[in-house]
Write a structure and sequence with these properties.
The complex is a heterodimer of chains A (627) and B (507).
Chain A: H1 4-25, H2 30-54, E1 58-67, E2 70-78, H3 80-103, H4 110-129, H5 133-151, H6 158-189, H7 194-203, H8 210-223, H9 232-235, H10 241-250, H11 255-262, H12 269-291, H13 296-324, H14 326-329, H15 336-365, H16 378-381, H17 383-397, H18 403-418, H19 420-445, H20 452-455, H21 462-477, H22 490-493, H23 500-525, H24 533-537, H25 539-601, H26 606-625
Antiparallel strand pairs in A: 1-2
Chain B: H1 6-22, H2 30-53, E1 63-68, E2 79-83, H3 87-108, H4 113-132, H5 136-157, H6 162-191, H7 198-207, H8 212-229, H9 238-245, H10 248-258, H11 260-273, H12 277-301, H13 306-326, H14 330-361, H15 377-390, H16 398-414, H17 416-441, H18 447-452, H19 462-480, H20 483-494
Helix pairs in contact in B: 1-2, 1-4, 2-3, 2-4, 3-4, 3-10, 3-14, 3-19, 4-5, 4-10, 5-6, 5-10, 6-8, 6-9, 8-11, 8-12, 9-10, 9-13, 10-14, 11-14, 12-13, 12-17, 13-14, 13-16, 13-17, 14-15, 14-16, 14-19, 14-20, 15-17, 16-17, 16-19
The chains are: A mainly alpha (627), B mainly alpha (507).
């Protein structure tokens, strides 16, 4: 008999089995590994579909660990929120697996790639289904591992090794707070089960603590590349492009947003303010960073950071909105904050996966050239890629009536209702998005080819184009209600709807922003250029922007090299000097001196010994009888 | 078969095998290896059987009890063996790590193999005895029995600086052992108990607890003595040096199992018998343990020698265990036991794989390595997995994660501020762990290394994989089925008259 929990278990078992089979038996059998991994992804999509549309909600858990007064149960929590996330992960994941079949063709360690992809699916689904903070954290670490393995996929490149280490360590900085938050949450609620915590807070709202909420948010800051821990995500582009699409754009980096939605009831007003500030700053800052990038994947990476900032802001704004308008909460399946954030997460997953896969298709076609100023003229060489990429482009910049428009406008609307300052920042971010994406789009696709690589570009095979086409359709229509069948319709139905006047104002604002960004991009870059016009014509501004983009990395590198490493070396030196040298050798010296002193008593003179003996006897007598 | 004979069997088999080898000659060849094999397999099988069939029969949670006269009854000493929920996981640890170390030593074919295996078997017998003893005298006796071969093995079969390392280890560990012995004797004398049996001592002290000042001094002695044995900062410098020099199977057994003697003593003896002790020392212990985590953690990051790195990281992890004990709560004590087992398995794995690494590269210096994954992918996979487990990434290291996580929860319940520096360990360990595997296996090899690897490198052989897989299997089993040991731990800590409940928490 199929039950939700059985399906959930299957969802974890299928990719894990695939990963283990590949690891143990098919390390050298690339073809079998491909079939297994893509088959597993397909099975996941089917099971997930069945679970989402045919099954109700469920919450089951089994006792796992009891130690003293600490006890922990692990289990699944399947509700509209996790169903939305499950749909995104399973569906987009499957498409990217198919794409990877074409992209990774001819690679020497293809089995390792697909093994890691299956392992990633396993870990990511674990995050989605987990019903408690500890289990969520476990899978959180596991996606970190799979991300580490896949960023470092090109093992022999020193830059890939550095990037994978950076990703994992930066995430651990976030996890530092996350773990403390979980320990505190246990102390506060005596359970880590999300449903139980939610019930406790519903009964007594004062139980929610700002400290816990912010510490848990640290985890999201790390995983979702929010400032100041965003530095790992652009570097993570060292991994193969399907990995960038799946892990570093559509799903894993969105796990932080999902975490926030999952623990929304633990938020307090103060915590939400911090979350909002982090989200809004990241959205704008990453947009600025994207403007000076030349590597197509890095532009998209910064864009991802920026959009994640929008999602974080969306969560904060929506939750604040719901607090201000309690009448809206009603019986919606999702809270306003969760719905707004998840809506943008979903459309973003479609169009950003599409953009990354498109970039992958271009890179594949251009013989691994990634500099946009060495491309050009791709529109003619790769028409399908061009059309689909353009769909992603219009969705990302929020062109009216395309998917990104709906989700971004919801955020802007909420911002207008709750925090006008945030709204201005977010609008500026949208302007930047339109600008840097236009820059990318005209430079890559129009004008003439700027290098041999792009001159010899060829369209990618069908296996890569089909996922592009499917995603392109979703990137266009993904904002419309009718795409979301129940129960996924909660995503759009839970959102507040602006009245007609506000709606028109928003529409016009968005259109103007997009137009401004587009015109700005076109003015500066025309129909493509062989070098960065910003760099050549407005030098100081470009230098400033590059400085802004690099400042975090510079500061962190300085800290690591000059503070952390120096302190560590100093401690190592002191340990050697003080403990090994002075104290241990010193005490050996003391013992040696005592030994010499004692030896000097050994005169070999029998009279001497007799005196010593008598002295000892007297001392003993005094000690024993005390006189 | 009578249950009570299981434990003597596990202790005696390696001892008997060692005695057979004592009369052996190098030309026995295969027979030596067969005898040693028996000596390592029997304790492991017995320990796993005990784990499987453990059903506590007495209020203290002891099972497999047996008592034999020694002729020293006048001094209160009998050979009293048994396992409770705390001893059982460590007994299993000793059996399993012993088996892996033994298999690894058998396949390594050292010079004068029969002498080496003899010492290792002797050590194994002592290790099984330590955790099977209810009698405190034998608990200590077996520890010495396991400790002495370590010195000899380091001194004769060790690597660089082996003389100095052996001397330093001997001095430190002897001082530590002496101090803890003094503490144990003091405790025994003050308790007015008629025997060294831990059960008797517990009953005696439950009726008439020791005065606060006696508890304070006894606990202080035990803490310092055991602390030195477990490499409490700043008494830790013997550890990285000694492990760096020790032959791998000796390092596996010492770092993996024998070092846990001190922590085990604190959890099994000091906490229940001296419940007022920890509170007196907790502030000092906290600072020293933080020294283990933060100071030693940072020092670990600067290591170039992979074996020293593992040694330092093991010292660092002991900080978590000390903090868990400092909380003096049931959760903390249980978390410490969990940590001992998980850490013991992983550190043994790492020492073993580091030696396999050395056999292929001829160096322990990570700065001379790079790109080894191309030549030895299986070794790389094993090593990376073990390293991730050691830095408590769930997966194969799920047990390590449970241990660290429960330690963290215990600390937060006790003194929240302590958790902030403690949790820094999460970041520090990721830095040194990932840097190490990055340097060894990924990236480009140095020119010198390239030359060294010019001749074909053999990937991890099955003879090396099997001991590693045994360790992984037990680690994974505990991670996925933590209840198999935590239920026993709970019963031992809270059942009967154990005083280690949440007393310290409210302070």
């Amino acid at each position: 008999m199929l039950s939700p929990e059985l399906l959930a278990l299957l969802l974890l078992a299928v990719p894990l089995t695939s990963a283990l089979l590949i690891a143990f038996f098919f390390r050298r059998a690339g073809t079998i590994a491909q079939v297994l991994s893509v088959g597993a992804a397909g099975a996941i999509a089917l099971i997930a579909g069945h679970l989402i549309f045919r099954m109700g909600d469920a919450a089951v858990s089994v006792p796992w660990l009891t130690l003293g007064d600490f006890s922990l149960s692990l289990g699944f929590l399947i509700n509209p929120l996790s169903k939305v996330m499950l749909g995104v992960v399973a569906f987009v994941g499957f498409l990217i697996h198919v794409f990877a079949l074409g992209y990774m063709k001819g690679d020497t360690s293809i089995a390792r790639f697909f093994g890691c992809m299956s392992f990633f699916m396993f870990s990511m689904l674990g995050i989605v289904l987990a019903d408690n903070l500890a289990m969520l954290f476990i899978f959180w670490e596991l996606v970190g591992v799979s991300s580490y393995l896949l960023i470092g996929y090109y093992l022999e490149r020193p830059s890939a090794v550095a990037a994978s280490n950076k990703a994992f360590i930066t995430n651990r900085v976030g996890d530092f707070g996350f773990l403390i938050g979980i320990a505190w949450a246990w102390m506060q609620f005596k359970t880590l089960n999300l449903t139980e915590i939610s019930a406790q807070i519903a009964a007594d709202p004062s139980l929610a603590l700002t400290g816990i909420a912010l510490l848990l948010f640290c985890g999201a800051v790390g995983k979702s590349g929010q400032m100041p821990l965003h530095v790992w995500l652009p570097d993570a582009m060292e991994g193969p492009t399907p990995v960038s699409a799946l892990i570093h754009a559509a799903t894993m980096v969105a796990a932080g947003i999902y975490l926030l939605c999952r623990i929304h009831f633990m938020m307090t007003a103060d915590a939400l303010n911090v979350v909002l500030i982090v989200g809004v700053t990241t959205a704008l800052y990453a947009g600025v960073c994207a403007v000076t990038q030349k590597d197509i994947k890095k532009i998209l990476a910064y864009s991802t950071v920026s959009q994640l900032g929008y999602m974080v802001a969306a969560f904060a704004l929506g939750t604040m909105y719901a607090a201000k308008h309690p009448e809206h909460a009603g019986h919606a399946a999702l809270t306003v904050g969760a719905a707004a954030a998840m809506f943008h997460l979903t459309t973003h997953a479609f169009f950003k996966a599409l953009l990354f896969l498109g970039a992958g298709s271009i890179i594949h076609g251009c013989h691994h050239e990634q500099n946009i100023f060495k491309m050009g003229g791709i529109a003619k060489k790769m028409p399908v890629t061009f059309v689909t990429f353009t769909a992603g482009y219009v969705a990302l910049i929020g062109f009216p009536w395309v998917s990104g428009f709906w989700s971004k406008d919801t955020i802007l609307y909420l911002a207008g209702q709750v925090s006008p300052v945030a709204e201005k920042f977010l609008l500026a971010g949208a302007l930047l998005t339109a600008f840097y994406m236009t820059r990318l789009w005209v430079t890559v696709f129009w004008d003439r080819p700027k290098s041999d690589h792009s001159d010899h570009a060829h369209e990618s095979p069908m296996v890569m184009l089909v996922p592009l086409l499917v995603l392109a359709v979703l990137a266009i229509v993904g904002g419309a209600n009718l795409v979301y069948q129940p129960p996924l319709d909660a995503l759009v139905n839970s959102l507040p709807h602006p009245d007609a006047a506000t709606h028109h104002r928003l529409l016009v604002t968005s259109a103007v922003i997009v137009a401004l960004g587009f015109v700005g991009g076109r003015l500066l870059y025309g129909w493509g250029a062989a070098n960065d016009r910003l760099e050549t014509s407005i030098r100081p501004l470009h230098a400033l922007l590059v400085g802004v983009q690099r400042c975090f990395d510079v500061a962190y590198n300085w800290y690591v090299a000059n503070v952390q490493q120096r302190v560590a070396e100093l401690l190592g030196f002191l340990e050697h000097l003080l403990i090994s040298g002075l104290v241990v050798r010193g005490s050996a010296a003391v013992a040696g001196v005592l030994g010499i002193a004692a030896k000097s008593l050994q005169t070999g003179n029998i009279h001497g010994y007799v005196y010593w003996f008598l002295g000892g006897l007297l001392a003993f007598w005094f000690l024993a009888f005390g006189f | 078969m009578n249950d009570s004979l299981l434990l003597p069997l596990a202790i005696a088999t390696p001892l008997v095998c060692a005695l057979i080898l004592l009369g052996g000659k190098n030309y026995w060849g295969r027979a030596v290896r067969a005898i040693a094999f028996v000596g390592f397999v029997v304790p492991a099988v017995v320990s796993l059987w005990c784990w499987y069939s453990y059903a506590p029969s007495t209020p203290g949670g002891y099972a497999f009890i047996g008592r034999w006269a020694t002729g020293l009854e006048g001094l209160g000493i009998t050979l009293h063996l048994g396992l409770n929920g705390i001893a059982l996981p460590l007994f299993v640890l000793a059996g399993v790590v012993g088996l892996a170390a033994g298999l690894f030593a058998i396949q390594a074919r050292a010079e004068r193999a029969y002498q080496y295996l003899l010492l290792l078997l002797f050590m194994q017998s002592g290790l099984m005895g330590v955790f099977a003893s209810i009698d405190v005298f034998f608990f200590y006796f077996f520890h010495e029995m396991a400790l002495i071969p370590t010195f000899i093995m380091v001194g004769i079969w060790g690597g660089r600086d082996r003389q100095y390392a052996a001397m330093k280890m001997t001095v430190y560990l002897t001082v530590g052992a002496m101090l803890s012995l003094a503490g144990l004797i003091y405790l025994y004398v003050q308790s007015d108990a008629s025997s060294f049996s831990l059960i008797d001592l517990r009953n005696e002290l439950a009726e008439t607890p020791l005065s606060a000042s006696v508890q304070k001094y006894a606990f202080g002695f035990l803490l310092l003595g055991f602390g030195i044995l477990v490499s409490l900062w700043p008494f830790h410098t013997w550890a990285p040096l000694g492990y760096g020099a020790a032959p791998s199977s000796a390092a596996m057994l010492h770092a993996g199992v024998l070092k846990k003697f001190g922590l085990y003593g604190l959890v099994q003896i000091a906490l229940p018998l001296l419940p007022a002790g920890p509170a007196q020392w907790s502030s000092i212990l906290t600072w020293l343990a933080l020294g283990n985590i933060v100071v030693v953690g940072l020092i670990t990051m600067t290591q170039r020698d992979v074996k020293q790195l593992i040694g330092y990281s093991s010292v660092m992890h002991m900080g978590y265990a000390f903090l868990a004990i400092a909380t003096a709560s049931t959760l903390g004590a249980g978390a410490a036991v969990l940590l001992m087992v998980a850490h013991g398995l992983t550190v043994a794995l790492l020492f073993m794989l580091a030696t396999s690494l050395y056999h292929r590269t001829g160096t322990f210096d990570m700065h001379e390595m790079g790109g080894l994954v191309k030549k030895a992918p299986v070794l790389a996979a094993f090593f990376v997995t073990a390293m991730l487990a050691s830095i408590a990434v769930p997966g194969p290291g799920l047990a390590n994660f449970w241990a660290e996580f429960t330690v963290f929860v215990a600390i937060w319940q006790w003194q929240p501020w302590v958790l902030f520096p403690t949790a820094l360990g999460v970041i520090i360990s990721a830095i040194y762990g990932l840097r190490a595997v990055g340097r060894i296996f990924f990236g480009q090899p140095t020119d010198a290394f390239e030359k060294k690897l010019a001749e074909p490198v053999i990937d991890l052989r099955w003879a090396e994989r099997i001991p590693a897989l045994i360790l992984f299997a037990v680690l994974i089993a505990i991670g996925f089925w933590p209840r198999s040991i935590t239920e026993g731990i709970n019963a031992a800590l809270t059942g009967g008259k154990s005083p280690t409940s949440e007393v310290a928490r409210s302070e």
